[in-house]
Amino acid sequence: MFCEKAVELIRELHRMGDGQLPAFSEDSIRQVLEEMKALYEQNQSDVNEAKCEGKSELIPTIKFRHCCLLRNQRCVAAYLYDRLLRIRALRWEYGSVLPANIRFHMCAEELEWFNQYKKSLATFMRSLGGDEGLDITQDMKPPKSLYIEVRCLKDHGEFEIDDGTVILLKKNSQVYLRIKLSYIHLNTHFFFIDDYFYIIVRLIVLYIAQTLLKK
Amino acid sequence: MDTQSYMPVPPGVGLEENFFSLDDILLSHQRLPCRTENAFPRLGFLEKSSETPDILEGTKMEMPLWLAKGLYERKRRVLSVDLPKMYREGWRTVFGADPNVVDLHKMGPYFYGLGSQLLHFDSPENPEIAQAILQTYIGRFRRTMDSSQNAYNEDTSALVERLDFLERTLFREGKSVQRKW
Known about the structure:
The complex is a heterodimer of chains A (215) and B (181).
Chain A: H1 4-15, H2 26-53, H3 59-94, H4 100-104, H5 108-127, E1 147-151, E2 157-160, E3 166-169, E4 174-178, H6 183-189, H7 194-213
Antiparallel strand pairs in A: 1-4, 2-3
Helix pairs in contact in A: 1-2, 1-3, 2-3, 3-5
Chain B: H1 22-27, E1 31-36, E2 60-64, H2 65-71, E3 79-81, H3 89-97, H4 111-118, H5 126-149, H6 157-160, H7 165-180
Antiparallel strand pairs in B: 1-2, 1-3
Helix pairs in contact in B: 4-5, 5-7
């Protein structure tokens, strides 16, 4: 039966269900493409024969080969697409520089795609959070505790939180603060504490952006 | 590697297949017993039992699901698909009696998926097949969920052996959630 080689590619990927990237099987892809070429040429000649000599009984055979061509196409496309999904996950797991053994498993076009993806992600990250940008590939898990350690970027002087305590916001000092995500609270305090607001917004944007980007 | 970042294309629901889903491709590779209503000239080499250059009309052969779906036409009779053993009357009564007893992995590892795809072929028994698959799933679901939530850090191969792919995915998800919690 046709298309056995193409399904082998899919089985190889399916075996590694945890997202590891196996080596790019250039040989198998070449064999699948050769099979597709042979099927296509046979179909071409049969179509000509059916049209010119009126042999309409060849039509089921033509349809059969066409199904095989579509199947091969689907398998190759799914193979390449799934590999891209895995490579994209690698950026989030390993960072911008991939270990050499993983890079050997990628073909030239996949490396090119990875570089482009890195660039797009970096441009996006630089556009967030003011001047320096925000690295959203850090801190991928949501906070487990109620309090978070916050470092002040600018000198602000004294600041009173709504439960009455007064904290001193000096440049580079670190303070334990509650993460308050209520929009109204932030709104009313906006004109007092742009720096505090700035820190909190960085955190919120970080978690939202991470979830959205991974879809 | 942490699997949170790798999100493969999930299998399709019901009668639809997802084009890029690896699970759906492997599912549609399963073979079904079919009978050709038309002749297929020049393809005789595919059928091992005969030595004719063509596949003759009325040949019984095993075709993969993707091919049967591609060639099947409602109006013109090109192909007629017979139901595999486990979707027929006999096995349906077994599933009705007690679904937990059956080894669904042996019965074709893609019981639910293949059953859903079979509904494409307009067999007169379609409503009964659909009902049988649904009732089997409902009957087995409880046990799968319970065992996945309570099998923390144990060897689960004996439990997982008798499950088909859909139930195994469910089991794995239940276990991983349990671990995180």
